[in-house]
Amino acid sequence: MDTGFLNSLVADYLTSVSSKLAGKFMKETKSSPLPADSPKIGDMVKHFSETTPKVAKRKLAMTNGDDSAAKKAKKVRIYKSRGATTKIMHASLDHVVVGI
Fold it and tell me: Are 15 and 22 in contact (CB under 8 A)?
């Protein structure tokens, strides 16, 4: 997309919010005013929301900080050393989760 046209769209929107802010934006980006027959950002957003298919939102299962139920069960390895038993619950290159 043409950056100049996009900047003109943003400047036109900012004019409806704050003319001072729009002037500063136009000065910084060196954008020209939007042509009179051009669609506005609001029109584009409205068209997008009307024509985009509605997709059901996913529902996330709530957990109390324990996400182990959401993960696959993994094998637990039990190591005995000097009379102490240690379970390695999960291990990766950067950390190890240990249960005693």
Answer: yes
Token duo for residue 45:
């957003």
- The enclosing H or E element of 61 equals none
What is the pTM for the complete model shown? 0.50
Alpha helices in the chain (DSSP H): 3-17, 19-29, 41-51
Task: Provide CB contacts within 8 A for 42, sequence distance 6+.
Answer: 13
What are the pLDDT digits (tens) for 27-59?
Answer: 999 988 888 888 899 999 999 988 988 776 667
What burial letters (b/e) apply to 49-87, b meaning 16+ CB within 10 Å? eeeeeeeeeeeeeeeeeeeeeeeeeeeeeeeeeeeeeee
